[in-house]
Design goal:
This protein is mainly alpha-helical. It has helices at about 1-40, 45-65, 70-85, 90-115, 115-120, 125-130, 140-155, 165-180, 185-200, 210-220, 225-240, 245-250, 260, 265-275, 290-300, 310-325. The protein contains 16 helices and no strands. Mean pLDDT is about 90; it is low at about 5-15.
Length: about 325
Amino acid sequence: MKTVLRLTALALPLSLSACTTMAINMMVPTIEKLSSVGFQKTDMEYVGTAMPASILQLEGMLTLSPKNARLAKIVAEAKCGYAFGWIEPKDPQRAAEYYVEAKDLALRALYDSNKKYRKAIDAGKPIHEAIDAIDDADAVPLLFQVANCWGNWLNVNKSDMSALFKVPALMASMYKILELDPSYFYGSIYMVFGAMYAAMPEMAGGGVERARACFDKALEASEGKFLLVHYMIAQSYATVLKDLSETDLFNPDKPFVRPELAAKLDKRQMLRVVPCGVTEKPTPRDMTGAQIFDEMMRYIEETPATIEPNLALANTMAKDKAATLKSQRDEYFFD
């Protein structure tokens, strides 16, 4: 009898733990719907005040159900978004810590939820090779969090040369999203590529032409409703052009990839050779960086944040960041 009681005493906590995990897992669809409500708000102070407590509660739930990939994605998205919108403007290095935590959460969730990624990691493959093994579009939401959070971290630490060692894994996640579902979250991956190409010299595979090609795709995919794209064009592209125009800097005689080579590439190879899968170079505009900057600022100011309800918060954030960037205009242009 004593043995039975001991076994019962041992089994009870395990049973309660299993019930708790099951209850949390059942709540995740509701949590996803509640999270979408926050995306539709336009009061950044209101949302920003509520987010720390919400994140803490979500982290507690994830502790009780650590292998729930959907919940991990929600937590990673919340931490990364909070860091980008509210922490980075005041304390970039503290924001960088949030980015790392969010990125690690997304990678752990990928390990728990994707067999091919897990198999590659268990075999000792580096992260970028493990990501390359993924062939399931269901992994895209987590891959996007990896790319978004890691990209934000690199942006904060771009003066740190050791940060370059993180680029292969970031690029792998970006290419994989392009391959599996480039339309995810209003085609945001094109915006990420545009910012990356704008920051890289042409000899390293970047340059303004490649950046413009990807930003054009981002504008097309979002139908002009995602104001963060316009902000990134102003912040990362127009400021590189400065007071020169696209006609001054573009080289129309040099293709992205030779036509005879392009004909031999499959879709997957093309995405890795040609910026965002675009084979035709964009037509240069006789507009200076300053003029493009002003056009983007004007569009952001005149377009209501609620033009796309599910982007209301992100668009409000873009408006807030654009106002700060506009106040710094004289630091970039001399017209």
